[in-house]
Amino acid sequence: MKSGFGTVLGLTLLAGYLAAAPARAGDPEQICDVPSNLLSTESKLPKVAEAVRSGQPLNVLVVGSRSSTIPSSEGSAYPAKLQAALKESLPSTAVNLSVEVQGARTTEDMGGGLVKLVEEKRPTLVIWQTGTVDAIRSTDLDDFRNAVDAGIGALQQAGTDVVLVNLQYSPRTESMISGSPYLDNMRVSAQEHDVPLFDRFAIMHHWNDAGDFDLFSPAHGVELAKRVHACLGRALSKFVIDAAHLGPAQQN
Amino acid sequence: MPSIADPISGMRLADAKDASAAAAAAPAVTPQATSERELRLDLFRGLALWLIFIDHLPTNILTWLTIRNYGFSDATEIFIFISGYTAAFVYGRAMLQVGVVVATARILRRVWQIYVAHVFLFTIFLAEISYVATRFENPLYTEEMGIMDFLKQPDVTIVQALLLRFRPVNMDVLPLYIVLMLFLPLILWLMKWRTDVTLALSAALYVLTWHFDLYLSAYPNGVWAFNPFAWQLLFVFGAWCALGGARRMSRILAPPITFWICIAYLFAAFLVTLSWYLPQLGHIVPRRIEQWMYPINKTDLDVLRFAHFLALAAITVRVLPKDWPGLKSPWLRPLILCGQHSLEIFCLGVFLAFAGHFILAEVSGGAGMHFLVSVTGIVIMCAMAWVISWYKHSADKGASRYKSAGGNADLAGGAV
């Protein structure tokens, strides 16, 4: 047992060291690298793949709570950055994106309106960001899980691909909001419905640990938020393209 | 401190009858308490307190040492089980020797102390959250700041907190403990009659909880993070072990087959846990088992968690004999001391976790700082435990009387 602990400790220290070690050059693209395991998923996005391959427009709908936007500069929030990055990676595809921010609504509240939204906007892909409001209000976990399941089910039934986006990593409020049970439930739910989960929490956690961003910062300015969202948008675009198997190698 | 020793130190004040009863009781307890002092309990409760503290801090290197990363159960199980064990040990004897009424009165005083401790911690939490709410306005986290909304209606929130219905993060264990202790007189009274029947009743309540989905609601919504209807099983099981169950269990624990079953279960649990952290290993858990197993419910003390704790305990009891010389080693002394003053050290741990969060937020959040905060916290906990035990043995006025009670103050002080 003792040597086992020792090994684990050694490996952890080593991993921490390796994660922190690479010196970061000035290249802004390099600043927020995401380890490939955080962007890999076994679930697929067949509708997205089909749309891109057949030259149809790619309609993306982002449904989320307030952490899907930046107050008074929506153009810098991750959905807009996602659109830009998708356009760049898929030059021959028209990428349309609409955002539906529903502040202060729980997963259950949001889930009810999803089908109607899909009927209105006819998206190929719905990016559903949720969980934060539930964690803040400590929604009952069974209710939360059922709401996530029902929401994903409704979206799949309506014929769209789904990407689930979980909570932000928010170290300042970590002692006040208990996110982990909600993160766990979203992970299980995504796995069961075979839906890709964009692990925003782990990715931001990684950036904070690796020193890309200081998410503890009490800065009042909007700059940090903009930079984080730009990186999130780029990572999310990469995630979507990988899950749809539209990487350069797979795109003929 | 609530203890068998209390009536002795307060003898002059107590009425004659009670005092003589207590005085008569003390010597009867003393030899057993001193000769049978279970240092292993103190050791592991101390360990649980350290682990709870580390788990309450943001994730850092030390977090990887906590047992919840290697299996289903975590430090809470250890804490509740040992608490049941020691509480039954101390108050169970009191019940036999000074009667149900006096023992109940002592337990209720203990409940009151834990309640006051909880309210004290809540005050500190309020201070922290109010400070953060006014100082921190990062646009990245406007949504998360919604957690401060309750500050807008302190009239409701604070009353709900006093009713134990509003519990901020990391403040779930004491309310559970308060409820369990509140029912301890009933549990002990039943155990005095039939220990096995009491355990069976407790298991039945556990089953009913799962079947009918019993729970205590919380404020503003949701349920108690540790459902007392389910967690009582661990507490009562601890009490059952203290009152003779452990001795009878040894027949089941002795054969090597038990040992190997436990090892196999722990290993399987370890693999499953590993698959949470390394998604590449996801395929090692068959889908059928996955569907049956998840979610592993902490709120209602999932059977898998309970079994995991039992396996851990069975192996520990076997590997670490009662008279293991290491228990006297100065290296383990800090852990044991912490375990002996668990209410104080638990509260201190929750406070230090708040303070740690605060330092990480205000000063710096690097990995080095994380490590430093964790280690410093543990050192402070040990130092405090040492100071408390110094008070009990040397500084208190009644020190000589305490000593004459044969170290009972310690045991009961540890009766959290």
Task: Give a brief rundown of this model.
Chain A is α/β, with parallel strands linked by helices and 252 residues long.
Which key terms come to mind for this protein?
heterodimer, A: 252 residues, alpha/beta, Rossmann fold, 5-stranded parallel β-sheet, 11 helices, 5 strands, disordered N terminus, B: 416 residues, mainly alpha, disordered C terminus
Describe, in plain words, how this protein is organized in 3D:
The complex is a heterodimer of chains A (252) and B (416). With 252 residues, chain A is an alpha/beta fold. Chain A has a single domain (45-243), classed as 3-Layer(aba) Sandwich (Rossmann fold). Chain A is built from eleven helices and five strands. In chain A, helix 5 links the parallel strand 1 (58-64) and strand 2. The radius of gyration of chain A is 18 Å and the shape is globular. Chain A starts with a helix and ends in a 9-residue tail after the last helix. With 416 residues, chain B is an all-alpha fold. The N and C termini of chain B lie close together (10 Å). The chains are: A alpha/beta (252), B mainly alpha (416). At the A-B interface, helix 1, helix 7, helix 9, helix 10 and helix 11 of A face helix 5 and helix 15 of B.
| Biggest interface, CB < 8 A | A-B, 59 and 49 residues
Count the helices of chain B. How many? 18
Please give the oligomerization state of what you see: heterodimer
Report the C-alpha radius of gyration of chain B, rounded. 22 Å
CATH superfamily of chain A, by name, is SGNH hydrolase
* Helix content bin of chain A: 40-55%
Tally of domains of chain B: 1
Q: Low-confidence parts of chain B, pLDDT < 50 over ≥5 residues?
A: 1-35, 402-416
CATH architecture of chain A: 3-Layer(aba) Sandwich
Number of distinct helices of chain A: 11
Beta-strand fraction estimate of chain B? under 5%
The largest β sheet of chain B comes out as: none
Number of strands of chain A: 5
Question: What distance lies between the first and last C-alpha atoms of chain B, to the nearest angstrom?
Answer: 10 Å
**Portion of residues within helices of chain B:** over 70%
